Amino acid sequence: KNYNISIIKGDGIGPEIVDEAIKVLNSASKKCGFTLSYKEYLMGGIAIDTTGVPLPQETIDGVLASDACLFGAIGGEKWDTLPRELRPETGLLKFREEMGVYANLRPAIVYDELVNASTLKPEVIQGCDIMVVRELIGGIYFGKPRENDGFKAYNTMVYTKPEIERISKTAFELAMKRDKRVCSVDKANVLEVSQLWRDTVNEVAKNYPEVEVSHMYVDNAAMQLVRNPKQFDVIVTGNIFGDILSDTASMVVGSIGLLPSASTGDKTAIYEPIHGSAPDIAGLGIANPLATILSASMMLRYSLNEEKAANLIEDTIKIVLKDGYRTKDLASYDAKEVLNCSAMGDKIVE
Ligand code: NAI
Ligand code: MG
């Protein structure tokens, strides 16, 4: 069997980490008896430099025609002064919108092998297994009107009931396969949109009587994630809160370089690490490729139904970590050897 994978490497560490994921994908697919064909497309700063726009039509068409998309990250200082519509980040938002990927699944799982790599106490984090379900194509990132005239600037946070219903449904369906607990995070004490969010989550919850529902204000949720992360199973929240809370959750796990994600909807799904292009370490070869490799394994599981290969990759990563191999971001006292980005990919293949 062969699958067509669209590849978007992007900017900064994007090419470095995606190359390692491809290495691991090739090895796993070979072992499990299927093949992958890759086609590369441009997005972000590199697309601006090459084609003049952050999201060429060719990229949209190519990804739509593929079975799944593996994406690195985009952005960098070089493009930060461009007008908003020409910026790399605008390309990414438009890309997600075009693909209709409203549900961004961000698992935050603490590996036993890494309990000492976190800055938090082992007893606080051990066994933590959270799924952050972030709404990805609505909310304040997309709301109109938006403007900045140099004196006054504003954005609009907007969600419609159907948008909240479909992301809630995703969260409850996931919870049914997990620990049957959903915590919806909002700011309903001050925001209209959050009140609609909360009411709608409660309505959807009626269809899932086995699932325990709770609600939490986002400021408290940020605190609770660090205080006692194990209280959470599925967290469902809007675009901006999900963005921020998953970065917080990454430090429970140990490093932002560990958190993968699946962006899913009605069309081609996109698999991407939760972090950005990390310009501060780009080109140094020290980025952690595991978030991208784990994203690739989510791709095998969710889009290609190659469960065996996905498990193989995840089990191998655990062995590599158990053996004490780390990238620089995880170089705690119990590390045996600190590997660069490409050596980490090689080690997993080995
Ligand atoms: P960032 O996630 O790129 O980096 C934050 C910090 O985490 C940096 O110190 C970085 O070195 C570190 N880091 C990130 N990924 C790492 C990895 N795999 N291994 C080791 N360390 C890692 O966020 P930042 O610095 O706020 O944004 C940088 C650029 O990325 C900006 O242009 C931003 O707009 C863009 N960005 C793009 C995203 C995407 O493409 N999905 C998501 C977030 C930001
Ligand atoms: Mg983010």
TrEMBL record:
What gene is this protein a product of?
leuB
Site label Important for catalysis, positions: 141, 187
Keyword Thylakoid set for record: no
Name of the featured protein: 3-isopropylmalate dehydrogenase
Pathway info: Amino-acid biosynthesis; L-leucine biosynthesis; L-leucine from 3-methyl-2-oxobutanoate: step 3/4
What's its EC?
A: 1.1.1.85
Judging by the UniProt lineage, the source's domain of life is: Bacteria
Instruction: Return the Pfam families for the record.
Output: Iso_dh (PF00180)
